[in-house]
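Record type: monomer structure entry
Structure origin: computed from sequence
Chain ID: A
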Amino acid sequence: MFKENFHTHTKYCDGKNTVEEMVESAYKLGFTALGFSGHSYLDFACDWCMTREDTEKYKNEINTFKQQYKGKMDIYCGTELDCYSDTVNPADFDFTIGSVHYIKAGNEYLPVDSSIDEQKKAADKYFGGSLIEYAVAYFDIVANVLDMTGADIIGHFDLVTKFNENDIYFNTKDTRYISAWKKAVDKLIEYKKPFEINTGAIARGVRKTPYPAMDIAKYIDSKGGYFIVTSDCHNCNMLDFGFEEAYSNYSDFRIVSFSDIMRNK
């Protein structure tokens, strides 16, 4: 198990803790590396993303801790790019995560991970009331997330299932759903970028299993894909939440150290 996490959020966006609190917690856990990934600025209204002004403060503060912990723990300044974060320059960061948090329909941005009610509302308005068709539209965007962001990591691949534990709202065995995520994997796999095994929704009590679902992970693996483990941490007490189970349950797949990738970047 690699003692590192490259998906962490602070008070600069929607996290609960300061940069310092995150760093101190990671060091106490024996981490060898910690990557910050604050939500990047979005042009449209968004209260969970960093502002332009705070983004500069965020980078400066993290760089300070990089120096303080040099030789003790590697610290990286990254950002989680939404596919619509077109005002952000990835070159300004050590690494980036590419994620899809919205489906764009017309001029409207439909949130994917805010609530099941929002998903149903969007499905009713734009997809004939079908959450399957809503999910298909989501994966159509996921397929292009690296084209749109140029990111280093593929974030929470099947986030659309956040509120669908045990297929309570839509059937993930539906052939339309399976075809959509396979199409996305087939395109993304060509980039040779790592997919997350992301325990964040478990930490927040809305799921019992990580992203991606096991059948998706098996398909990614069969195509030669590989993974990193993250906790999508919004609370310093959850930095390695669910890591032991994730490493155990996904042990048949290739899991790598992202800090090794960073050193060879």
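Annotation 1: The first helix runs from residue 19 to 28.
Annotation 2: The two ends are 22 Å apart (CA to CA).
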